[in-house]
Amino acid sequence: MRYLTFALGKGRLARHTLELFEKIGITCEEMKDETSRKLIFTNEDLKFRFFLAKGPDVPTYVEYGAADIGIVGRDTILEEGRKVHEVMDLGYGACRMCVCGPKKAAPLLEHHELIRVATKYPNIAKDYFYNTKHQTVEIIKLNGSIELAPIVGLAEVIVDIVETGSTLKENGLTVLEEVCPLSARMIVNPVSMRMEIDRIRDLITRLRTVI
Ligand code: PRP
């Protein structure tokens, strides 16, 4: 039997995923050692192989078939736009992609003003403003601490992830519009989907019993 290879987005998401897999008897002890610099881990009994990658790289590994399966946030899947099948909502990491800003920015969205939008997700933001809202905007790509942008005058609004809402609140910002709900998803390479359909189906069925 060939290895079924999983790419997991690093960090909180990977921890959740390993917990979930443990519940259905898929364990990988060596992966839990967070001090280890090892990149790839195997479960020889099940012929499963796991590796950790940066979130945005997970769909890339899966599209090219270097991983059969990926576990990553829906934000990353939408942003990267790779040719992969999204097969399952794993439920955790639930949050929302939102347009946020100071309350006074609300009329700018209503009146379709030409505004600047700062975001770590330029493709999601572009799609939302151009295809859903039909509003022409200037998208400014940032790499983190997006909430700063409206405060220091870089942009009128931001498109960002809102989980508890506390980052917005502490910075005097608010949700102005919701773009879409997000959570962790399982993605599969289209060829693996056909070649390994039985093992993938079995995995999904077992995961369903614990979600
Ligand atoms: C994310 C997101 C928000 C925050 C939302 O940032 O970009 O800033 O979490 O969470 P909350 O609604 O619970 O406050 P992250 O911590 O990933 O860091 P970043 O600013 O570097 O993107």
TrEMBL record:
Enzyme class: transferase
Pathway: Amino-acid biosynthesis; L-histidine biosynthesis; L-histidine from 5-phospho-alpha-D-ribose 1-diphosphate: step 1/9
Domain of life, source organism: Bacteria
Localization of this protein: Cytoplasm
GO molecular function, one term: ATP phosphoribosyltransferase activity
Residues of the signal peptide: none
Domain ATP phosphoribosyltransferase catalytic: 56-208
Listed GO biological process terms: L-histidine biosynthetic process
Protein keywords: Amino-acid biosynthesis, ATP-binding, Cytoplasm, Glycosyltransferase, Histidine biosynthesis, Nucleotide-binding, Transferase
GO cellular component: cytoplasm
Coiled-coil stretches: none
Reactions listed under catalytic activity: 1-(5-phospho-beta-D-ribosyl)-ATP + diphosphate = 5-phospho-alpha-D-ribose 1-diphosphate + ATP
Listed EC numbers: 2.4.2.17
SUPFAM superfamilies, per database record: Periplasmic binding protein-like II
Role played: Catalyzes the condensation of ATP and 5-phosphoribose 1-diphosphate to form N'-(5'-phosphoribosyl)-ATP (PR-ATP). Has a crucial role in the pathway because the rate of histidine biosynthesis seems to be controlled primarily by regulation of HisG enzymatic activity.
Family: Belongs to the ATP phosphoribosyltransferase family. Short subfamily.
NCBIfam families (alphabetical): hisG
Subunit structure: Heteromultimer composed of HisG and HisZ subunits.
Xref: HAMAP family: HisG_Short (MF_01018)
Entry comment, domain topic: Lacks the C-terminal regulatory region which is replaced by HisZ.
Entry protein name: ATP phosphoribosyltransferase
Taxonomy of the source species: Bacteria, Bacillati, Bacillota, Clostridia, Eubacteriales
Gene (name only): hisG
